Amino acid sequence: MNDRLDVFVLQVTDYKEHDALVKTLSQTHGLLTFIAKGLLKPESKNASACQPFSEANFTYDHQEGKGLQILHSATMIESHRKLREDLSKQVVMAVIVELLEQVLEDNYDPSLSDEVHKSLKVAVEGLETTDKPLNVLVFFLVQALSWLGIEPQVDECTVCGESKINSISMDEGGFVCSDCQKELQSPIFTAEFLYAFRIVNKVDLSNVKRYLTYQAPSMELVDYLYDFLAFHGNLSLKSWAFLKKWSIIN
Ligand SMILES: [Zn+2]
To answer: How many A from CA of 59 to the centre of ligand 1?
Structure first.
């Protein structure tokens, strides 16, 4: 029996001879990897629908509990080709894909599947049209913090609850007031940085469309957010070094 599934293609890697592995994300199955036989042959009918970041409809016979599914055919829904033609967008997508892998493979919570899928859709469509790829990246980092349940406290001092703050403590997980800062010896930040850090941490699916038109965050802020995610989420992304190297803000 043929199963059908709408997927986002995340990654395509060489497998055996002319075969490829196609890693996908779908609303119902989260991450799912397919063996696409003959995909690397020039005459492959599925090649255009299996390009990274495209949305496609896959037919296959779902094998429960199998790590790899066998793709029968792939039909393009939306190419999203702009994401493959612009280097800064590619680099941001590489971070998003790696983040999805790390967040979902180890501790995937099926109750999040709808939100994860919606977030990827917003990111892909936003990235396609925006000239501010860092805003999309920040949205995704903040989503990942929320999925892992490690959002920073940005409403008050995370130690004592005081509302006047001048610092962020990585260890304590958020804003810190001047009294607690002296105690913790945490770094002091400018009011502008603290304000911007609060704003980005309030971005979610309900307000992201507006945020994508908002001024681009500084690389310092994006970096700090990533450090926070890496520290509390205990993850490390290879693509982050690449992003830094290409320094996508010009
Ligand atoms: Zn305090």
So the answer is: 56
**Rounded Cα–Cα distance for residues 190 and 188 (Å):** 7
Residues in contact with 4: Cβ distance below 8 Å, sequence separation at least 6, in sequence order: 57, 58, 59
Residues above pLDDT 70, as percent of the chain: 97
* pTM attached to this predicted model: 0.92
179, 103 contact by CB (below 8 A): no
Alpha-helical regions (H) of the chain: 82-85, 87-107, 113-129, 133-147, 178-184, 191-200, 208-211, 219-233, 238-246
Q: Distance between CA atoms of 21 and 68, rounded to whole angstroms?
A: 9
Residue 36 and residue 22 in contact, taking contact as beta carbons nearer than 8 Å: yes
The identity of residue 115, as a single letter, is E
Q: Which two tokens stand for residue 237?
A: 């992304």
Per-residue pLDDT at 108 = 62
In the reported structure, the alpha carbon of residue 233 is separated from the centroid of ligand 1 by a whole-number distance in angstroms of 24
pLDDT 10s digits, 110-145: 788 889 999 999 999 999 998 899 999 999 999 999
Q: Give distance in angstroms: CA of 220 to centre of ligand 1.
A: 24
Distance CA 51, CA 9 (A): 7
Q: Domains in the chain, ordered, with CATH?
A: 3-79 (2.40.50.140), 83-151+201-246 (no CATH)
